Amino acid sequence: MLRLVCQRAHINSFSRRTFSASALRLKDPWLLPNTPEHEATTRSASDMPAPTPLPRPNESLWKMRARLVYQSRKRGTLETDLLLSTFAQENLESMQEEELREYDKLLDEPDWDIYYWSTEKRPPPERWENSPILQKLRQHARNEGKVIRRMPDLSQAVSAE
């Protein structure tokens, strides 16, 4: 009986040591945004060629604005969704066609790259260094007026022309 108790104690201490040793080697696959670990493991678009946008022949300005509102809201990361959707709500109506096309190209970039470029955590690649749209987005991200932002309602996002 004493031998059985000793064996169980040995097994329990062995499994605790094994678990704690393996737990130390495991890394969290879901890193928190804006941490150095996340920034170091996220690939940057500056390493990759510019994405090729989908051709949209004969798209009206109204349809383009509506599409850009939707694409600004539904990115996949909440941080980028909030940043771009509030930017779109404040700026899309006043943008000219050239600015809309540039914003459309920016939305083709990966979410985290847009977020890091606009929050100035990473430098943008050469193709975006002198972009007026990215400058406006950076100004919006600074939120110098300390505005409390929330996702805008879709029904008020774009009015029909």
UniProtKB/TrEMBL annotation:
Q: What Gene Ontology cellular component terms go with this record?
A: mitochondrial matrix
Question: What InterPro entries does the record point to?
Answer: SDH, SDH_sf, SDHAF2
Q: Could you provide one GO biological process annotation from this protein's UniProt record?
A: mitochondrial electron transport, succinate to ubiquinone
Gene3D superfamilies tied to this protein: Flavinator of succinate dehydrogenase (1.10.150.250)
> What residue spans carry the region label Disordered?
32-58
Q: Which residues form a coiled coil?
A: none
Question: What are the UniProt keywords, alphabetically?
Answer: Chaperone, Mitochondrion
KW Membrane (keyword) present: no
Question: Which compartments does it reside in?
Answer: Mitochondrion matrix
Q: Give a yes or no for keyword Chaperone in this entry.
A: yes
Pfam families linked:
Sdh5 (PF03937)
**Function according to Swiss-Prot or TrEMBL:** Plays an essential role in the assembly of succinate dehydrogenase (SDH), an enzyme complex (also referred to as respiratory complex II) that is a component of both the tricarboxylic acid (TCA) cycle and the mitochondrial electron transport chain, and which couples the oxidation of succinate to fumarate with the reduction of ubiquinone (coenzyme Q) to ubiquinol. Required for flavinylation (covalent attachment of FAD) of the flavoprotein subunit of the SDH catalytic dimer.
Family indicated by similarity: Belongs to the SDHAF2 family.
Assembly and interaction partners = Interacts with the flavoprotein subunit within the SDH catalytic dimer.
Its protein name is Succinate dehydrogenase assembly factor 2, mitochondrial
